[in-house]
Amino acid sequence: MDHTLIKGAEWMLSPETAEGAPRGIYGAQCLTCAEESGLVDDDTRPVGVWAIAHTRDNPTHRQFLVTTHKHWRVEPVPANHAAEPEPEPEPEPEEPAQTAPSVSAKPP
Ligand SMILES: [Zn+2]
């Protein structure tokens, strides 16, 4: 949800983008023995490497629950935005009818 904002009255929810905040924190847990990979910031590769190594060492352990944690921030909506009316939604462009005859751009 990089650019998705959820507005509720005077509060606004958005992803935490402060310096040092990871975009994602990843981890996996073996569904057979519940062993965990540990959590890794911003990179799924170490978690995948752990899962493969875990299955290599325990060949019957082949299913994992993978989790992703993300930070969100809720902040007050700036006053100038709170006062603005919601923009009208753009009308959906209508698809041309399948049976409409084609129109040639060339003169006859
Ligand atoms: Zn296991």
What is the gist of this entry?
With 108 residues, this protein is of the alpha+beta class. Helices cover 16% and strands 25% of the residues. The longest helix has 13 residues, at 45-57.
What can you tell me about this protein's structure?
The chain has 108 residues and is an alpha+beta fold. It folds into two domains: 1-21 and 71-85, no CATH class; 24-69, no CATH class. Helix content is 16%, strand content 25%. It has helices at 45-57, 79-82, and strands at 6-8, 11-15, 25-30, 40-41, 64-69, 72-76. The mean pLDDT is 81. The chain binds zinc ion. Zinc ion is lined by residues 30, 32-33, 35, 54, 58, 61.
Strand and helix map with partners:
Layout: E1 6-8, E2 11-15, E3 25-30, E4 40-41, H1 45-57, E5 64-69, E6 72-76, H2 79-82
Antiparallel strand pairs: 1-2, 2-6, 3-4, 3-5
Bound molecules: zinc ion.
